[in-house]
């Protein structure tokens, strides 16, 4: 099975980020388009702020953060900051969601 999770420093410390299939569907609903379109917008730097915010928030929840704490982290460390600070994290989450971890054997199948 592909490893779709990643860990990164975000805001106040290291956090786990995972977009489960259920959370991918929620992301699609929140952003109004499919995961491929969301990823394409982010990868081409033609994204909406919701693409970034919701990708990170939902991946925090998938990684084990409570929904309330995930919202608090977005408010504290995404809202009002430069977009490039969080763009790279959202891109990493989407890359892992779509392609898995290239370091884990079996992700090339």
**Arithmetic mean pLDDT:** 90
Q: What's the count of strands?
A: 2
Low-confidence stretches: none
Q: Main sheet: which strands, in order across? A: 1-2
Give the count of helical stretches: 5
Order of helices and strands: EEHHHHH
Q: Any idea how many domains? A: 1
Word description of this protein:
This protein has 109 residues and is mostly helical. The chain has helices at residues 21-31, 35-43, 49-62, 67-77, 83-99, and strands at 6-10, 13-17. Strands 1-2 form a two-stranded antiparallel sheet. A hairpin with a 2-residue loop joins β1 and β2. The protein is globular, with a radius of gyration of 13 Å. The N and C termini lie close together (10 Å). The model has no long low-confidence stretch (mean pLDDT 90).
Keywords for this entry:
57% helix; 109 residues; mainly alpha; two-stranded antiparallel ribbon
């Amino acid at each position: 099975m592909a490893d779709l999770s990643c860990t990164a420093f975000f805001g106040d410390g290291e956090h786990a980020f995972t977009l489960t299939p259920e959370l991918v569907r929620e992301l699609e609903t929140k952003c109004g388009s499919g995961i491929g379109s969301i990823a394409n917008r982010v990868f081409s730097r033609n994204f909406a702020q919701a693409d970034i915010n919701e990708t990170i928030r939902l991946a925090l929840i998938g990684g084990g953060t409570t929904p309330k704490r995930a919202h608090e982290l977005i408010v504290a460390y995404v809202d009002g900051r430069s977009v490039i600070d969080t763009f790279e994290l959202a891109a990493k989450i989407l890359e892992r969601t779509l392609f898995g971890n290239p370091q884990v054997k079996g992700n090339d199948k």
